[in-house]
Q: What sequence folds into this?
């Protein structure tokens, strides 16, 4: 175990060294102006422009250059030259992912023990999944590029991971918050299985509102606090209304059509003007459409649900960058045991890896051909963006289906075990619980998870 | 208000940049329009729109494109020191032709039928290097009793023409003769008398300061070399050249404080001439002479840096001319400073990063706070307003050259926003460079009566020296204009793929499918259906599962339901229709 630990720290340290070498490389790699790295939202150059405008007592949002939060301007503005901040942010991200993975592992093992299915995942793994996730995050070329290329996405990723970490440590992941169901635990311990199923129906009614209200209250307090701070920052430049128009309005209406790795820029550059609003609504609704079905189906796995949400939003957002992809690819590493474990193997994983490599190699080439050499065409670059979108879609869909079938397999195994030893009293089974739970309850649980995601956004806004 | 149509670019090196003529009349290529409005602040933009439309109709030009807010700006102090009611717009790509000149001539009392304007022979005018027609309207304001005292209209036509002889570059050797010219040889027409309606009709011929000095030098030289047989004619009649018409008056510049010889102005009145005795001014050089016009303190030029269609930089370079050297000698102070005012408008699709402003003096980078005296930036808003920069730089007098650079990103437009010739590129209008410490006034004679002559009054105005830089052509990346349908369909397919496959994964219930399969197996359908199910199972590679086909059973029931639904929808539609009416 200690050797594994040492190996992890060695690799993590090596990644930091690698970043430092790249940053202080004598020749500038010009990564900061790559369209993959710096979208209008994450470009550090635009942030510097906003900071300059603010310093010269103009509105930082004047000139359609800067579209981030005014607080981020205060934090990052003076630091624009120092890229060490981003290396630190990356390391912190990796460590947080590792801690999340540790929590996840503990609860997963507990659950397997509860199902009396233990002794499965331990032996053959090279590294525990938490270390794999952290190393995938640290060594992912996307992460390295967005860190060395000086975009703000490491900082934004840090906000997301921090809130995810906070959500995991309070109640423990992979089960719906236990505190919500106060009466349940002692019930299930004392009563036998058939009786407990009856009790479960009752447990739904003694659902306690206190933590939900607490959470709501804190999130409201936090967002008001953040809004007041923002309002103070921009009070001379048109107030909060201007800020919302320049940040969220900019994200929602997609006015900047410069190329990025998403598909929306070319779509809105080509689409007819009178259909523009319709398609804007459709594309943004696409993100929201999936929130409820996913929450209903994956309510027993909040962490995985968070991963799917992050992946979907970074896939369909208006200005995606590779920093977003780095975040969810790192989180994907957390579920390596489930997705590629004994029970089920994720489909197309080799194909996905090939597409990932191919797109990340071809996309800069096509961009170069189109923009710099003038020999290519916008369609070539758009084709790689298409392939990238397909890659993400297949990844999300396959990981969801693999996770679902993994849980199905677990359930089958536990049912088989249960039928073998029917007389055993303490077969508490969270998984079968989740099947019997009423839809009201699961909807509420998923709703809580949505609120966690909302809190992410609030935190993002704050920074 | 001032409107100018220009074709060609004023060559500041050859045609001078310090005199009243280039400072006032040299204009950027295309159309330039500025106007100061005497209306309340909120009505300025509306008045500007009306003005552009009116002028566009009057002059048969696309001035109405200046109506949209992306094409005009409101300079604070960089262009003219007017209050916030000034609007400034340019159309660098406007092609100027006779259709613009004719309405301009119509404003003259005699059109081009009589007087000097009879010289306006279209082919010879448009054959020249440079041609700029200018219309200047000044409201005299209101009298104390509220009576409008009228509007002064000034029309100026500035033409740089090439004499018909073989072209001899000015910078060439002195042994070559300057081409001699006459009005007939240049314009191909003669002036036969003045316009009847005109109060005065006068032709002026100005000899540059440097030319006069050069002639004097030559004269002295000749006097020393060939002391005898000098037919001293004096400067008044001209030394090295012969005028075909005797001037009515010769005026000499009075403020010779510049240390050079004063320039000369020959005045010819056209009124004396008539049909029988047409006015045909000609000038014949008798000796070879070479001179250069007086330059602006700095020679400004602007160019683009960088390659590719993603980003670039605008650079404005200044090169010291003779004048600033001379200025240095006269002042002989090291700390003397040369203020330069820059006014630059950049369209919104050139996204300028103003924080990247860098100034190099003699190839040494300078701190911005040392060089920039005053700066006002109004950044561009996407699709709303152009970016505008007004800046006063202070250069040391000794400097040889200076460069100011600004980086920018090139924007990407919607396909409808590209002009038909999108691959030609987009124009950045000229920057206006002015030198607030230098005035281009020329005073001729102390006589008060001379000031009544409008052109002399114009010469005496204390305007600072202004020059315009080149128009820049920026190529922008173009999307594929032929592909909107393909892009829409392919992108929508991607989104449908995402939505459909994810929903499919989520709603699949393996338990029910197995149960359904078992019941199917128990039923044991016909051999064909069994074969089909096996085939499909093989094709999809899934464990045996059969597609649900509930439509085959109880078709009559479904059809009745369908009819019910159709009737319901129709009923709702009818009710809705009547409700709306």
A:
């Amino acid at each position: 175990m200690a050797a594994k630990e040492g190996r992890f720290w060695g690799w993590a340290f090596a990644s930091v060294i690698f970043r430092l070498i790249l940053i202080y490389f004598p020749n500038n790699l010009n990564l900061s102006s790559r369209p993959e790295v710096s979208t209008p939202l994450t470009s550090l150059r635009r942030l510097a422009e906003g900071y300059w405008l603010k310093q010269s007592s103009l509105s930082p949002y004047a000139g359609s250059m800067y579209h981030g939060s005014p607080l981020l301007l205060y934090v990052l503005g003076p630091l624009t030259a120092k890229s060490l901040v981003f290396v630190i942010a990356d390391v912190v991200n990796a460590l947080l992912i590792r801690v999340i993975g540790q929590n996840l592992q503990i609860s997963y093992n507990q659950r397997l023990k509860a199902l009396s299915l233990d002794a499965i995942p331990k032996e053959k793994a090279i590294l525990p999944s938490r270390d794999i996730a952290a190393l995938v995050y640290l060594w992912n070329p996307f992460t390295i590029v967005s860190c060395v290329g000086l975009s703000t996405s490491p900082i934004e990723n840090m906000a997301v991971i921090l809130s995810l970490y906070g959500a995991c440590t309070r109640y423990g992941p992979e089960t719906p918050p236990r505190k919500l169901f106060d009466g349940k635990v002692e019930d299930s311990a004392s009563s036998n299985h058939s009786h407990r199923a009856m009790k479960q129906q009752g447990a739904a009614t003694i659902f306690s509102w206190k933590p939900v209200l607490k959470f709501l209250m804190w999130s409201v307090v936090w967002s008001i606090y953040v809004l007041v701070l923002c309002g103070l920052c921009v009070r001379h430049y048109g107030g909060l209304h201007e800020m919302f128009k320049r940040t969220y309005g900019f994200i929602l209406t997609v006015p900047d059509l410069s190329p990025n790795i998403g598909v929306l820029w070319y779509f809105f550059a080509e689409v007819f003007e009178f259909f523009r609003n319709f398609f804007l609504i459709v594309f943004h609704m696409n993100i929201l459409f999936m929130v409820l079905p996913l929450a209903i189906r994956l309510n027993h796995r909040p962490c995985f649900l968070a991963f799917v949400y992050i992946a979907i939003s970074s896939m369909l957002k208006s200005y995606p960058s590779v920093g977003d992809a780095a975040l969810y690819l790192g989180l994907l590493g957390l579920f390596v045991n489930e997705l590629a474990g004994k029970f089920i193997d994720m489909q197309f994983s080799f194909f996905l890896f090939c597409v990932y490599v191919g797109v990340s190699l071809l996309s800069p080439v096509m961009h170069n051909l189109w923009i710099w050499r003038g020999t290519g065409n916008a369609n070539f670059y758009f084709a790689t963006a298409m392939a990238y979108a397909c890659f993400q879609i297949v990844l999300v869909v396959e990981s969801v289906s693999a996770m679902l079938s993994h849980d199905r397999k677990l359930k089958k195994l536990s049912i088989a075990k249960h039928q073998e030893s029917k007389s055993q009293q303490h077969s508490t089974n969270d998984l079968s619980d989740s099947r019997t739970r009423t839809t009201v309850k699961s909807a509420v649980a998923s709703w809580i998870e949505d609120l966690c995601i909302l809190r992410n956004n609030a935190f993002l806004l704050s920074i | 208000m001032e409107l100018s149509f220009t074709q060609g670019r004023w060559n500041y090196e050859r045609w001078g940049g310090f005199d009243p003529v280039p400072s006032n009349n040299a204009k950027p290529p295309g159309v330039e329009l500025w106007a100061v409005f005497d209306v309340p602040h909120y009505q300025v933009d509306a008045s500007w729109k009306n003005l552009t439309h009116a002028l566009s109709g009057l002059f048969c030009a696309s001035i109405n494109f200046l109506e949209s807010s992306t094409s005009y700006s409101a300079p604070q102090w960089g262009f003219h020191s007017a209050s916030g009611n000034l609007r400034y717009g340019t159309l660098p790509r406007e092609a100027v032709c006779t259709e613009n000149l004719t309405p301009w001539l119509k404003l003259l009392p005699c059109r081009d039928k009589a007087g000097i304007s009879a010289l306006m022979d279209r082919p010879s005018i448009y054959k020249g290097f440079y041609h700029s027609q200018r219309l200047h309207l000044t409201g005299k304001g209101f009298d104390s009793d509220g009576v409008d005292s009228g509007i002064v209209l000034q029309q100026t036509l500035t033409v740089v023409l090439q004499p018909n002889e073989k072209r001899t570059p000015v910078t060439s050797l002195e042994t070559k003769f300057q081409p001699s010219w006459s009005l007939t040889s240049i314009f191909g027409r003669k002036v036969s008398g003045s316009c009847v309606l005109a109060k005065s009709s006068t032709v002026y011929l100005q000899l540059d300061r440097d030319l006069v000095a050069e002639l004097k030098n030559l004269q002295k030289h000749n006097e020393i070399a060939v002391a005898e047989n000098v037919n001293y004619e004096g400067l008044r009649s001209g030394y090295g050249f012969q005028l075909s018409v005797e001037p009515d008056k010769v005026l000499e510049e009075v403020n010779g404080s510049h240390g050079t010889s004063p320039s000369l102005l020959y005045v010819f009145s056209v009124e004396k001439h008539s049909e029988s005795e047409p006015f045909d001014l000609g000038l014949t050089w008798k000796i070879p002479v070479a001179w250069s016009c007086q330059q602006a303190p700095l020679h400004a030029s602007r160019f683009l840096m960088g390659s590719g269609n993603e980003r670039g930089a605008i650079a404005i370079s200044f090169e010291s001319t003779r004048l600033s050297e001379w200025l240095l000698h006269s002042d002989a102070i090291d700390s003397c400073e040369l203020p330069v005012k820059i006014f630059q408008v950049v369209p919104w699709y050139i996204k300028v990063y103003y924080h990247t402003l860098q100034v190099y003096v003699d190839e040494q980078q300078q701190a911005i706070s040392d060089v920039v005296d005053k700066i006002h930036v109004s950044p561009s808003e996407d699709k709303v307003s152009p970016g505008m920069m007004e800046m006063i730089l202070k250069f040391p007098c000794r400097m040889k050259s200076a460069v100011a650079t600004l980086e920018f990103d090139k924007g990407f437009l919607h396909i409808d926003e590209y002009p038909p010739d999108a691959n030609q590129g987009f124009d950045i209008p000229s920057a206006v460079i002015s030198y607030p410490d230098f005035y281009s006034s020329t005073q001729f004679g102390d006589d008060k009566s001379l000031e009544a002559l409008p052109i002399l009054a114009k010469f005496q105005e204390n305007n600072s020296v202004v020059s315009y830089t080149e128009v820049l052509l920026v190529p922008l990346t173009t999307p594929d204009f032929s592909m909107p349908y393909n892009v829409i369909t392919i992108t929508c397919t991607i989104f449908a793929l995402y939505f459909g496959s994810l929903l499919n994964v989520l709603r699949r219930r393996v338990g029910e499918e197995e149960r359904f399969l078992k019941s199917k197996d128990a039923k044991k359908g016909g051999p064909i259906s069994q074969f089909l199910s096996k085939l499909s199972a093989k094709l999809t590679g899934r464990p045996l599962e059969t597609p649900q086909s509930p439509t085959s059973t109880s078709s009559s029931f479904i059809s009745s339901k369908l009819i019910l639904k159709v009737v319901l929808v129709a009923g709702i539609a009818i009710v809705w229709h009547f409700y709306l009416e």
In short: Chain B touches chain A through 49 residues (CB under 8 Å).
